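Notes from hallway chat w/ T.B., transcribed later so I don't forget. T.B. wanted the structure written out for a chain they're using in a teaching module, and asked if we could keep both sequence and structure tokens in one place. Agreed to drop them here.
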Amino acid sequence: MIMNEKKELQVAALENGTVIDHIPSDKLFTVVSLLNLKDMDSNITIGYNLESKKLGKKGIIKIADKFFTDEEINRISVVASNIKLNVIRNYAVVEKKEAIMPDELKGIVKCNNPKCITNNEPMQTWFHVTDKEKGLLKCHYCEKEQQKDNIKLI
């Protein structure tokens, strides 16, 4: 009897749900947090430090019976660009999406200006994305600019 060697990670196929792929490993648990996955009742599989030709190491998340809104997807674009989402129905990919940073971010990023009204009054933060390629954000209220790489998430 000849045994075939399997060199790929074997994870249960997803009947319905979403696969979030191409997550940089160092951003995986930030994505988990941003999407509030710990509060979900769905079956969730998380792969960490998997081999990737593009990224070297990557993370992947499979979530059964969950389909994300564009707003939820846009939240994760703040921490990592080029994340891919595959929507699965009846074990087949029916839609592919990419996390793209939106033009505005509300209630996701903390303003790094201590005098900003959002840090002193109970109100939602609001940023305009002024340069998506460079990841430049500008506070709607105090107009302070900050880099995507230096942000604090709420």
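Follow-up for T.B.: Helices lie at 28-34, 70-77. Might be a good example for the class.
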